Amino acid sequence: MVFEHLSEGKFFKIPKIPFNDHVLYDDVYTSKEGTSPENSLTGSFFFIEKTDVPEGKLPAYIADETGIVVRGTVNLEDETGKKVTLKAGDTFFIHRGSQVAWSSDDYAVCFKAGNRAKFDMNEDPHKN
């Protein structure tokens, strides 16, 4: 397989995850089976619904992740209290071990990629 692609329609088919009420999330690309963890890459779409309340206790990220806001706006706040509001076209990088809360004043559609394996949609990938 040389490459994979998805149409924009995939944005409208993102499933809701059971461990977070305001986030829809789907791993859409992942390295081939048998790829070593240090060489793996997973790309994901996610949609954040409007919410004033970010998550409670923040889990530590298990891998570096980078992404771009495709539509809407997203608010990020880390464990140090640093806050930023990103809009369509803005990018982010979250370092492994960071604790980041996500929220939105309207909604956000994002694409992100990280060095981790595909995860089970019923289990939080960032839980400790």
What report would you give on this structure?
The chain is mainly β and 128 residues long. It has one domain (14-115): Jelly Rolls (Sandwich), CATH 2.60.120. Helix content is 0%, strand content 44%. The chain has strands spanning 23-30, 42-51, 65-78, 83-87, 91-94, 100-114. Strands 1, 2, 3, 4, 5 and 6 form a six-stranded antiparallel sheet that branches. A hairpin with a 4-residue loop joins strand 3 (65-78) and strand 4 (83-87). The protein is globular, with a radius of gyration of 14 Å. The model has no long low-confidence stretch (mean pLDDT 78).
Are there runs of 5+ residues with pLDDT below 50, and where? none
Distance between the termini: 35 Å
Looking at this structure, what is the CATH superfamily? Answer: Jelly Rolls
Strand content: 35-45%
**Tally of strands:** 6
- The fold-level CATH name is Jelly Rolls
Task: Specify Rg, calculated over alpha carbons.
Answer: 14 Å
- Overall pLDDT, averaged? 78
CATH class: Mainly Beta
Describe this protein with a few key phrases.
128 residues, mainly beta, Jelly Rolls, 6-stranded antiparallel beta sheet, 6 strands, globular, EutQ
Q: Topology, pairings included?
A:
Layout: E1 23-30, E2 42-51, E3 65-78, E4 83-87, E5 91-94, E6 100-114
Antiparallel strand pairs: 1-2, 2-6, 3-4, 3-5, 3-6
Protein name: (S)-ureidoglycine aminohydrolase cupin domain-containing protein
Organism: Penicillium vulpinum
Domain (S)-ureidoglycine aminohydrolase cupin: 61-107
